[in-house]
Amino acid sequence: MKKIVKLTFCLMAVSLLSAAASAQQNARIKIDIDRQIDTIDPNIYSAFVEPIRTVVYGSIYDPESPFADENGFRQDFIDLLKELNVRSVRWPGGNFVSGYNWEDGIGPKDQRPAKRDLAWNQIESNQMGTDEYAKLCSLIGADNFLCVNGGTGTLDDARHWVEYCNGEAGTYYADLRIKYGNEKPFNVKYVGLGNEIDGPWQMGQKSAEDYCKWALEAGKLISLLDEDVKLVASGASLYRPGNDWVDWNEYVLDKMIGKIDYLSVHRYATEALPGGRANKVFSDHMSLGLDIDEKIETTQALIKKAMVKSESERPVYISFDEYSPGFGGLLSSLMLAQHLNSFIRHADVVKMANITMITNLVGNSPEGDFKNSVFHTFSLYSHNALGTALDVKTICDDYDNEVFNNIPYLDVTAVLNEADNKVIINVVNRHETDAIETNIDLQSGEYTGKATANLINAESIDTRNTKDAQPVQVESEQVSFKGNTLLYSFPAHSFTQIEIPIK
What we know:
Elements: H1 2-24, E1 27-31, E2 36-39, E3 46-48, H2 75-84, E4 88-91, E5 115-117, E6 122-124, H3 130-140, E7 143-148, H4 155-166, H5 172-179, E8 190-193, H6 208-225, E9 230-233, H7 244-256, E10 262-266, H8 282-285, H9 288-310, E11 317-323, H10 330-345, E12 350-356, H11 373-384, E13 388-390, E14 393-395, E15 398-399, E16 407-408, E17 410-417, E18 422-429, E19 436-442, E20 451-456, E21 474-479, E22 485-490, E23 494-501
Parallel strand pairs: 1-19, 3-4, 3-12, 4-7, 7-8, 8-9, 9-10, 10-11, 11-12
Antiparallel strand pairs: 1-14, 2-13, 5-6, 13-17, 15-16, 17-18, 18-23, 19-22, 20-21, 20-23
Helix pairs in contact: 4-5, 4-6, 6-7, 7-9, 9-10, 10-11
Signal peptide: 1-23
InterPro entries: Alpha-L-AF_C, ASD1_cat, GH, Glyco_hydro_b
Family: Belongs to the glycosyl hydrolase 51 family.
């Protein structure tokens, strides 16, 4: 009997020790600079602007503001945007563009008509039109990404708008641009062929068949005007049970492959949550990077299928040109990092991404704009996460929720930034309460000096910056490491970017 008790005790002790060892086991991130995905297109650090409520009038364009410059733009906003190095700006829609007559927004401002915008039930003054949009892009150093009216608009509307923007002197619409004070073409590089045309909320909603008939002809006319313009077809935006969005994308790709350069993906990921945007569960929000991965990977598979069927040699990429991380608190900062991590993980297919809205990148106040938490996260990525996306192996604990299973607590990407001789590691700790001790194994390459860890965090996930108080900042520290191993503890509910110098 004593032997049995002793044996049982020993087994219990071994079990407890094993459990303790398991509990103490660190997470691991394995990085091999030879395991490369593709070059990251800097256009994933782009933005979207649409004249909804005060997004344009009051936040960007406000001639009556004490901060207004000679163009009517808020200089405090322009100065902050310059710091972010936004690569392109998609404009003017959004739902707005599907009822927009672009000629209402050109010429003398006192002669521009005020029109009712049915998309958002508001009066559009047309004081910010094509010329002002192009000026905004030039001021912040961004490329022009024009979205034409694919709802109520005609083929002539589309081609005349591009001629106005890109035409040389000697034609009616190009000369009209010159008459209104812009001798040089705007050099629009990207043109979206309509916005969310599959959506019943859209003015001029079309079936996939009708959309393709219009878009193919619009794209053809635009290419005849300027063969260098990159064309973006309107991908699905109507996500509902039944996966109609997959059918839309498949049809559009089947008909338009070889004639377009991008297929747009619009996804506001909170739609996937139980309760939608009203859901306040932190762990649920932290799972939404998986929803973005799913939308990208499904669309990528459809692109591959269409490429094989068509034997086209003209590649098609994803333009993820509408997404939102939220409105400026710490949670939004972590949501933005999850989106950008997904785009980096899929650098081989996502070549454009435009955050909704450009104004959400800064904090807005009548007393002056300021750096919100989203600003800080976007800045770390747009300046450092450039180069080649690496295929990272992450081993850590995970969790489940109503939408997803096996959600890793660490969301990780890595980038080989050869221009700066660094490896950049981006890590979101999705755990609300626990720090995660992690071994970072650099499995190839030679490294030198100390790493720099840039941390964005706060005591509460609801913490927000204001004009007077900015508790969410980038906190940097030097981290020593030996050989090719670095030990780091990622704080709860945080985003960390680590810069590791390469010899």
